[in-house]
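Thread: "does anyone have the structure for this chain?"

Original post by V.I.:
We have the sequence but no experimental structure in hand. Need at least a predicted one for the grant figures.
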Amino acid sequence: MRPKVFRDPVHNAIALERDDPGDRLLLALIDTPELQRLRRIRQLGLAGLVFHGAEHSRFTHSLGAMHLARRILEAVRGQLELGPDERTAVLAAALLHDLGHGPLSHNGEGLWGGRHEEWSSRLVLDPGTAVHQLLAAHEPTLPRRVDELVRGVARPRTLGKIVSGQLDCDRLDYILRDGWALGVSVTFDLTRLLGMVLIDQIEDRLVIDRRGHDAVEAYLIARYHLFRSVYHHKTVRAAGAMLGAAVRRASLLVASGRLSPGGVAPGLARVLGGGSPTLGEYLALDDGDLWSALKVWAGATDPLLARLAGGLLHRRLYKGLQVVRQDPAAQAAQLARARDLLRCAGHDPDFELLVDTARDQPYRPYSPAELGPEGIFVRWPDGNREISETSGVVRSLLQETTDTRWFVPEELRPELRRLLGATA
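Reply from O.Q.:
Generated one for you, tokens below.
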């Protein structure tokens, strides 16, 4: 039978064999309502308000991650004895790793009563989902094994790191895919990197041959630049802060009886009422539901909710002020003065002074006591060494970066800038 081919802008062709039992399962999983829902969830959420090419979905990324998991398995085929069921479990986990993402991806994280990883586990393990039923029909223990692979706790550990690690199929795909969609020049030699993957049988981990050392450096630098220039872009963060504030404001108004929870999706209505969506309600949510709610709220009689919702709809976003790094006590005192200033001027600091802190550690070194067998290891003639030991470039990426900003309506920025002594 002819394979099913998905045309992909990053990987060209992603092929699944119709006469292979494992690939037939993957095709069936792709057709489930749970995975098809990811077509309606943008990979980068509100980043499209800044980078107009950010239109790609979690669905396209899921296919890409599955494809790269297959390529990693092919790279280590002669080093790792895998049965068909183990291979299928890894590919299914790669395909389903983002299943639990909610509307607007990371920008909506935390609105729904749990992180997306927790929702992914629920979707895979719940007997009522089509995904669970397909996995269990293929092999009864497969739902549990897929869940363990996604959460990075599977054994053997090597298989788990293909799906969830610092050099996994997820990161390898999203760095290339996001950079391509955004027009941001970040890249690394994927073919070279995959060609250098080795198995450390003793430590039960993936390692990279020393000839791939430079490719790993390029990969980590690419990830760093994406975070700095895209994921932590000040305007993207402003939009995310406004979304959270809009939902908080709507919830407060619903609780006080000043806003009807009607006119929005049932799952969102439950959140506005202080609850968490049922699994079925969560599955019914996608980006369109949040945008529809924002359209309703933009016409609200409450001026704060109308401004927040309308600002997101029409890209009239709050402006940022960079907070200079200082000790927590001084920073808290500065924020208290700013809130008092707004309150005395008749403004509501809870919704007109949004504090955002963006954190990232570009690379997490090996630390058995804290992280377990994490890190990226390179095989040298004298043994395996963690890459921060051999790369000055990677050592420069060890420090956690923290950017704290205040986001405020544009007309309030001059006064707060004088108080803060900072520029946007």
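V.I.: this helps a lot. Strands lie at 4-8, 12-16, 197-200, 205-209, 319-322, 354-360, 377-380, 383-386, 401-408.
O.Q.: and The first strand starts at residue 4 and ends at 8.
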